[in-house]
């Protein structure tokens, strides 16, 4: 499996916050994520904008740790946070449905994100006693391993009317098949005598011949010499399906 690469964007609010971010990034790397953090990558004299541009472009995800100070800087466009926001915003405009940016809330009593991220779902790291759950959710997201997998769609519990048509009054083909099956069931021969069908069905000879031709086209019967009728396998299935015979 490929190793996900993430860029950590945060504001240097305090030494305590920088230490939290450092420990957070270390834990990400220990969990199979290539976390990019300025505290490891930059030395005095390095080009800060180049570092941001290069790593923001090459990362699979951008984790924005949203403290109150971070949100303020992002909205005002100030400092390194403002520059990172400008780069990320340009990327989001190219792919409006991008999920590249993941806001992480690290605040006290609020859940604010920069204005341009307000439509994004966030992960809450505000409460230390909930951090384990939040970290597990984040790691699963980065590795594409959700806790709950969407199940496959099963078969419909309902039978389509098209597949199970109701028995209609006046269905001439159905009436023909009822007579033919009734004769077939009362004899040992595989064929059905045309004359018996004619004497048992209440239609004219002309209409009977038309119905037989239609039933042949539908594959329900075939016709042998001497005008004998033979039920096909489909015809027998038709009879069972329409409950002509059980």
Average pLDDT figure: 84
Question: Architecture of the largest domain, according to CATH?
Answer: 3-Layer(aba) Sandwich
Biggest pleated-sheet summary = 5 strands, parallel
Radius of gyration: 37 Å
- What is the rounded distance between the termini? 57 Å
CATH topology of the largest domain: Rossmann fold
Strand content: 5-15%
Low-confidence segments, ≥5 residues, pLDDT <50? Answer: 92-97
Name of the CATH class of the largest domain: Alpha Beta
Which sequence of SSEs, written as H and E, runs from N to C?
EHEHHEHHEEHHEHHEEH
Number of domains: 2
Put the structure in a nutshell.
With 246 residues, the chain is an alpha/beta fold. The protein contains 10 helices and 8 strands. Strands 2-1-3-4-5 form a 5-stranded parallel β-sheet, sandwiched between helices. It has a 3-stranded antiparallel β-sheet with strand order 6-8-7.
């Amino acid at each position: 499996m490929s190793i996900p690469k993430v860029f950590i964007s945060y504001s240097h609010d305090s030494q305590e916050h920088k230490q939290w971010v450092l420990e957070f990034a270390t834990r990400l790397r220990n969990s199979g994520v290539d976390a990019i953090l300025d505290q490891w990558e930059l030395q005095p004299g390095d080009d800060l904008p180049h570092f941001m541009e290069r790593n923001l472009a090459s990362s699979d995800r951008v984790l924005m740790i949203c403290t109150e100070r971070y949100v303020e800087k992002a909205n005002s466009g100030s400092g390194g946070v403002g520059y990172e926001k400008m780069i990320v915003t340009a990327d989001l405009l190219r792919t409006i449905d991008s999920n590249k940016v993941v806001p992480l809330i690290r605040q006290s009593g609020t859940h604010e994100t920069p204005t341009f991220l307000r439509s994004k779902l966030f992960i809450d790291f505000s409460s230390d006693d909930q951090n384990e759950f939040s970290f597990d959710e984040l790691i699963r997201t980065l590795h594409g391993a959700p806790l709950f997998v969407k199940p496959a769609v099963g078969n419909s519990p309902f039978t389509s009317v098209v597949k199970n048509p109701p028995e209609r009054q006046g269905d001439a083909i159905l009436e023909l098949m009822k007579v033919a099956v009734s004769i077939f069931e009362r004899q040992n021969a595989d064929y059905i005598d045309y004359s018996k069908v004619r004497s048992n069905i209440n239609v004219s000879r002309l209409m009977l011949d038309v119905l037989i031709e239609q039933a042949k086209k539908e594959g329900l019967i075939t016709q042998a010499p001497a005008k004998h009728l033979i039920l096909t396998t489909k015809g027998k299935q038709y009879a069972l399906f329409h409950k002509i015979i059980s």
